[in-house]
Amino acid sequence: MARKTYALGLDFGTNSVRALVADVQTGREAGTGISEYKKGKQGIILDSQNTHVARQHPRDWINSMQEATKQALGQAGRNIKTFFPENIIGIGVDTTGSTPLPLDKKGKPLAEHPEFKNNLDAMAWLWKDHSAYAEAREITDLAQKIRPHYLDKCGGVYSSEWFFSKILHCLRKSPQVFRAAHTWAECSDYIPAVLTGRQAPETMPRNICAAGHKAMYNDMWGGLPDEKFLARLDPRMAELKARLYQKAVPVNKLAGLLTGQWAKRLGLPERTPVAVGAMDAHLGAVGAGIRPGTLVKIIGTSTCDMMVAGMRKEIPDIPGLCGIVPHSILPGYHGLEAGQSAVGDIFNWFVSCLSPCGMGHTELTRLAKKLKPGKSGLLALDWNNGNRTVLADHRLTGLIMGQTLHTRPEEIYRALIEATAFGAKIIINRFEEYGMKVNQVINCGGISEKNDLLLQIYADVIGRPMKIASSSQTCALGACMAAAAAAGTKNGGHPSLVAAQKAMGGTRDKVFHPIPENKKIYRRLFQLYRDLHDGFGGVGKTGFSKIMKELLDIKESI
Amino acid sequence: MARKTYALGLDFGTNSVRALVADVQTGREAGTGISEYKKGKQGIILDSQNTHVARQHPRDWINSMQEATKQALGQAGRNIKTFFPENIIGIGVDTTGSTPLPLDKKGKPLAEHPEFKNNLDAMAWLWKDHSAYAEAREITDLAQKIRPHYLDKCGGVYSSEWFFSKILHCLRKSPQVFRAAHTWAECSDYIPAVLTGRQAPETMPRNICAAGHKAMYNDMWGGLPDEKFLARLDPRMAELKARLYQKAVPVNKLAGLLTGQWAKRLGLPERTPVAVGAMDAHLGAVGAGIRPGTLVKIIGTSTCDMMVAGMRKEIPDIPGLCGIVPHSILPGYHGLEAGQSAVGDIFNWFVSCLSPCGMGHTELTRLAKKLKPGKSGLLALDWNNGNRTVLADHRLTGLIMGQTLHTRPEEIYRALIEATAFGAKIIINRFEEYGMKVNQVINCGGISEKNDLLLQIYADVIGRPMKIASSSQTCALGACMAAAAAAGTKNGGHPSLVAAQKAMGGTRDKVFHPIPENKKIYRRLFQLYRDLHDGFGGVGKTGFSKIMKELLDIKESI
Fold first, then answer.
1. What's the CATH class of domain A345-430+514-557?
2. Do B548 and A408 touch (CB under 8 A)?
């Protein structure tokens, strides 16, 4: 019998690092660990003067990685008699993104330099930082004018959350930080570089997932945006380009081998293979079993809706998608990313901000389950945080209609869930309208495990069975799969990421099937949702879209 | 010095009778009394099988009238040394309406007959009873076809709350009650008839206020709807017409003189003049100081917006108004009634049904006061109970838009108040579009006294000063004015209702003036409100109105 092998997946989230030790042959969990970041508010460093700011300190990543790994290895050792750290054949890394941080010439974070110790702009700019909203608009405007093809691959709008917006904003706001920064790296590049001793910018492996989805990297135009384009933003941005990278690679590639120092710190063998990093949602999709024809929905505070498509046939530019990037999810396939900018966040808003009748999610869910579709007369738009796909417009807001003098909180709660389901259906329809057939839907993420009501509504609204990934940690599991693929068969791993998925992934037995009578009513309600969506979203010609915009104009003018 | 004289106003509300003794020279309150009805739920007799049903027992009226009068006279005697019941020179009566009840040949309520003791259909059909919704549609359809002018005076739609809808429904549902009923009377006719011994149907004085606004009575077509029209509904309705009435008279006329029996029961002199009755909102408008150019807003769970216009110039049929009836408010003037179907009810819904963060009206008002107009980005429609004026469509529902993930309960609360203010402005605009200049707005009713925030928002939105009637019981005060006018100068009263108003009415010193910067923002928000209003209300051609209708269709089909 072959030696039993394991992989270590490290999942760098918004508030913590999770570590997972998984059996390379079956994907079964051997041990897990979690370590919350220590700095700021749950690991997020805020600026009381500017609510757009959200930063992280790279030292938090390092410390939590060490702690979570120790926990996971310890648990694996206790769970499985035959487990030893020496059985770990590879390490995979997924992180939030775009979360860039400025580095010096040696690849050391500026945040570790004494002179920038308390400078928020020298830290990592967390994905949800929106301080660069003006620069995002500037980049979008410029690209629309002179490089429209740059935008075609990222949904038509360059976001304030992304790589170049943040760097340009740093240049403007903290020129001393920008000057001191030799280069910038994504968290998903920085961690594998640290583990493999390839922090020096000229040797640092860069991942195509963050590059393609967040930095307009594409082989079609030779990598990152061209110098002329960057120079139009600022000549110093063009100069920076040479100190960034020429080439980005997919997640099944080796980033390098674990250094002696890090082997000691983590308690693992030296020279353990470390895979190139990727963003969490993308490895989450891998962990959930993404393949052509399968849509993976990662449902949390927001959603990511991921698909892949073979590279032989050309993929059209699908309007409203957040990104279409070769190799970004599965090597050898186009990775397609869509998403809803708020799902769980909307339910949390209703419960936390409004606290209706003092009820929490459990009680509201219990009551909402008893309601029949359509019976409340309510209809809502799921735009409390704008709309990512297909409208790609963050300047949209929530709406609820149909209230009477008897409307109950659980009716509103259910209407909000239904609204997110309608939004999900719009995304699936968009994929299919552009020839991306959806044969199955696999859900993952916290809400999909906990909320039967939501999955049943999704099945009824979308009109398809809703499956659930077997792992409750699909991101870390995806990282384990990447580790197994990067390690390769010679190390007891897998020949490819797809092979790793087949061996290590799967879905649960419980599937939510559409209930025919509900499906019928939701088909009618969806027509009405679409009328609202198109009318207020500016797709139709009704002029209703100007109402939302003008409300925001007024709000912002006060 | 002339003898000091007083009037007694009796205000028959939904849950109680209020009695007011007021100084005829100054309108000052001498004493008040209130007596809640004893039967049913706060005086409303419900049917657990049919939520549309809302009835009252006429005995409740009689008992509470006696009790409230005793209290008011007692209080007046204690307050004012020179007061004696002999100083009461007249009695005025206002009641809810349309609240018809079936009577036998002698004018005795069928509800007092042993065989109908527990029959809800033999009781008074309270204004808010909606069981006759199908008959209302039938009457509206028929009138549209063969007597469109009947509808022109009552807003284009005959309501399920009104006289003939209720009687026709009784005929269909309880033919034995309909057969036993010699005639039907409004509460506002029944009470003065009882007090003056003119209960016998052939002698019973009928008031033009209820007749004109609720029973399509108009001198233009010779009184009540013609027999042919009624026969098309049912031949028995045409037969009933002869047993109803030929002539209705205004509130400054004498209904008769107090009988000896009732003089004893109330502790008042025999042969005290009793004025013809009227509906509460109409005498409320009188009590608040209505005159040409003055709009009186009675703000409670819903609103009534009342105006009067001289009869010399012809009043156009104003689309969407609830009623345009000669002499219905002030004799010698057209009485015009508009209204919003829910105002306080919407705020109560938000607080009671949603109970956001456990906050009540006081706390929400305190927080909402701190907000700046437009800053929440919210906009709402005030249609949780349909729209009375100007759309005259009860099949409309509430809407709120502009929510983010940070929207707070007090922002929603304020947006709901603003929505009712926008709705109020639409009504004022409609009056003025049809040549009814509004020179001042006087508010009365519970909310206008208690809620400074609301009045300030109304001033800012409507762009005019908001005055408040000095009396907090304008309906009962209006009834006192009617009593003083009906008694006339020879009895120490007033020569006319207008003279009584001048002597006995007034507004408070505190006036809410528009704040210029708020007014500016609300002007922009009102444009958006109007877009929503016209779009969802079906005025525009956007097709959005079908969304609300279809939602209701679905709701009602389940």
1. alpha beta
2. no
As a whole number, mean pLDDT of residues A250-275 equals 97
CB atoms A547 and B354 under 8 Å:
no
Over residues A27-50, the pLDDT tens digits come to 999 999 999 999 999 999 999 988
What is the distance in angstroms between the Cα of B223 and the nearest Cα belonging to chain A?
A: 37
Distance between CA atoms of residues B38 and B63, nearest Å: 9
Taking CB atoms and an 8 Å limit, are A374 and B554 in contact across chains? Answer: yes
Residue A330's contacts (CB-CB under 8 Å, 6 or more residues apart) are A286, A290, A291, A308, A497, A498
Q: What is the pLDDT of residues A378-433, one digit of tens each?
A: 999 999 999 999 998 888 999 999 999 999 999 999 999 999 999 999 999 999 99
Higher-confidence residue of B164 and B553: namely: B164
Confidence of residue A449 (pLDDT cuts 50, 70, 90): confident
Chain B residues with CB under 8 Å of A401 CB are: 381, 397-400, 536, 547-548, 551
User: Contact B529/B379 with Cβ under 8 angstroms?
Assistant: yes
- B6-23 per-position pLDDT tens digit: 999 999 999 999 999 999
Helix boundaries (H) for B203-311: 208-214, 227-233, 235-241, 260-266, 280-288
Determine, for residues B403 and A385 on separate chains, whether the beta-carbon distance falls below 8 Å: no
From chain B, the residues in CB contact with A301 under 8 A are none
CA nearest neighbour of A308 among A431, A400, A159: A431
| Mean pLDDT confidence for A344-348 | 96
The secondary element (H helix, E strand) that includes residue A532 is helix A516-537
Quick check: B487 and B91 in contact, CB under 8 A?
no
pLDDT at A334: 95
Touching check for B555 and chain A: CB below 8 Å? yes
Instruction: Note every long-range contact of B81-88, with CB atoms under 8 Å and residues 24 or more positions apart, other chains counting.
Output: B82/B4, B83/B4, B83/B6, B83/B21, B83/B30, B83/B31, B85/B267, B85/B268, B85/B269, B86/B269, B87/B3, B87/B4, B87/B5, B87/B6, B88/B5, B88/B6, B88/B7, B88/B8, B88/B21, B88/B268, B88/B269, B88/B272
Chain A, 469 to 488: residues with Cβ < 8 Å from chain B are none
Q: CA of B532, closest CA in chain A: separation in Å? A: 8
- Rounded mean pLDDT, A305-315: 90
**Amino acid type, A427:** I
Sign of CA dihedral B238, B243, B249, B251: negative
Q: Where are the domains of chain B?
A: 6-278, 345-430+514-557
Structure tokens at A175: 């020129």
Contact: A372, B558; criterion CB under 8 Å: yes
Spatial distance between the Cα atoms of B144 and B132, rounded to a whole number of angstroms: 18
Residue A14, classed as helix, strand or coil, is coil
**Domain A345-430+514-557 in the same topology as domain A6-278:** yes
Between helix A516-537 and helix A452-462 the angle, nearest 10°, is 80
Number of Cβ within a 10 Å radius of residue A229: 21
- Give the model's pLDDT for residue B1: 41
Residue with tokens 């509808």: B151
How close B547 comes to chain A (CA, Å)? 6
Over 70: is that where the pLDDT of A540 sits? no
Q: How confident is the model at residue B468 (pLDDT cuts 50, 70, 90)?
A: very high
Sorted by sequence, the CB contacts under 8 Å of residue B142 that are 6+ apart come out as B229, B232, B233
Average pLDDT rounded to a whole number, residues B115-144? 96
- Asked whether B346 and B400 are in contact (CB, 8 A), the reply is no
| Domain A6-278 is found in CATH 3.30.420.40 | yes
- Rounded Cα distance between A266 and A91, Å, is 11
In 3D space, the residue among A343, A340, A335, A383 whose CA is nearest the CA of residue A154 turns out to be A335
The yes/no answer to whether this complex scores an ipTM above 0.85 is yes
Q: Which residues of B touch A551 (CB under 8 A)?
A: 377-379, 401-402, 525, 528
